[in-house]
Amino acid sequence: MIRPAELIQRKRDGEELGSGEIAELILGYARGEIPDYQLAAFCMAVYFRGLSARETFALTDAMIASGETLDLSAALGRKVVDKHSTGGVGDKTSLVVGPIVAACGVPFGKMSGRGLGHTGGTLDKLESIPGFRVELSTDEFVAQVRDVGIAIVGQTADLVPADKLLYALRDVTATVDQISLIAASIMSKKLAAGAQAIVLDVKVGDGAFMKTLDEARRLAEAMLALGQQAGREVVCLLTDMDQPLGAAVGNALEVREALATVRGQGPPDLTELVADACARLLALSDLGIDETEGRRRANEAIASGAAEAAWRRWVEAQGGTADEAALAQAPFVAVVEAPRSGTVMRLGAIAVGNAALHLGAGRRTKADVIDHAVGVVCLRKRGDRVERGEPLAEVHAGDGASAAIAAREVAAAYEFGDEHVPTRSVLLEVVS
Ligand code: URA
Prior knowledge:
Layout: H1 4-12, H2 19-30, H3 36-49, H4 53-65, H5 72-76, E1 81-85, H6 93-103, E2 108-112, H7 122-126, H8 138-148, E3 150-154, H9 161-171, H10 179-193, E4 197-204, H11 213-229, E5 233-240, E6 248-249, H12 251-262, H13 268-284, H14 291-304, H15 306-317, E7 332-337, E8 342-347, H16 349-359, E9 375-378, E10 385-386, E11 391-397, H17 400-413, E12 414-417, E13 427-431
Parallel strand pairs: 1-4, 2-3, 4-5
Antiparallel strand pairs: 5-13, 6-9, 7-11, 8-10, 8-12, 9-11
């Protein structure tokens, strides 16, 4: 039997712990036998000392062993693909990629999370669709992926319970932003949910956990190693999160933009990222095609309307109303105007995310109730030339007072200059 205080001390002093010791610590914690304060101290020791690749794998393995696992490929007799983003502002990529991949004949089964703080969660976005059920049982999830080709649901309570406990603890003990802990947390959920091939979108920049390309690369490499050790195929896209992705930030606004992108009418950066993610997911699938052919098939699914038809089948299968007109609309729309003529040098992702959060689009605490209609639409982004007085952004709000506050926050997120800003691809690097 391990002594938690001794493991904390050895990690604090920079020692590498045994895999069995890490497993006992995590499983003991998940069973409620080891208190929060000892795991909090352990996480802080890891924050400063890090974990080796072997320790990170042991942590991931222990978290998976704390609950049930799913073998989607065995249940469906097909290779199932999944995609995950480390979280950003305006990131509605999964809502677009899922139906496109499904329309190309590849089963897409994804378990998603909710947003906390300035980043939005896929489940919250989906719940802005009237009637949409995110809580399916495991059997319903598997049946829907088999019969409809796509399901995006909340993680079931039995899947990786240790991560739920640990993540909540890290959130309040300043130990979230540690690469091994993030890698183990994300990959334990992906591996337990059973997809054989996973595309990971690692966000980099102001609005992301990883602020620099170097940190993002290290996180990508850690997740890739965990995937490989578990026998899964993993590709990591490192993508720009210095400014919001697309124009819309806020739940129903993002669902509208996702649907427009499924129809081929999305903003350029989101469209580019969706095409990259689809090309790689299709190349990893059992279709036996390469990325070029994957990209061609994804574009064809959009152009032919097959992707939109898959969206409709998916939304209706989960009880939602596929009709766009049913999405909530905010009663107040304030327009933010350019204070001067010039070029948008920067549009801060966190500032826009926080403006949307203060409007009620996100949660400051787990108990907060989301207003699905509110948010921000960024009409102008980095590199755009604007004239004084021209609309920069729209603020969709529940009342005039919150609209005015958010409008000031959004205005402050824009920086102007007179130089040319070179266009930058949303895809910064691929680690595979
Ligand atoms: N997302 C997760 O699921 N876990 C982390 O630790 C960070 C982001």
